[in-house]
Design a protein that fits this description.
The protein has about 70 residues and is an alpha+beta fold. The chain has helices at about 25-30, 50-60, and strands at about 10, 40, 45-50. Strands 1-3-2 form a three-stranded antiparallel beta sheet. This is MerR family transcriptional regulator.
């Protein structure tokens, strides 16, 4: 899979690239519920690593060809 995010980059809330997976409120809800991509919490700053975002996106991938037919 082509990476959706730059692996060697850190993303912070407000970076437009994060809008690809959800807005600020959705990301906050996921963090509260221990869902979504891995992140770092440094004081009040939330940081997402590009490699973690790509790993999470790959885990969410659905391949219709592999889905069982009912």
């Amino acid at each position: 899979m082509a990476d959706l995010f730059e692996n060697n980059r850190n993303y912070v809330l407000g970076d437009p690239e994060l809008d690809l997976i959800g807005d600020r409120d959705k990301l906050a809800l996921w963090r509260h519920k221990n869902m979504g991509p891995a992140f770092y919490k440094l004081g009040r700053k939330v940081i997402y690593r590009g490699a973690d975002l790509n790993a999470w996106a790959e885990a969410c991938r659905v391949d219709p060809a592999l889905r069982s037919k009912s």
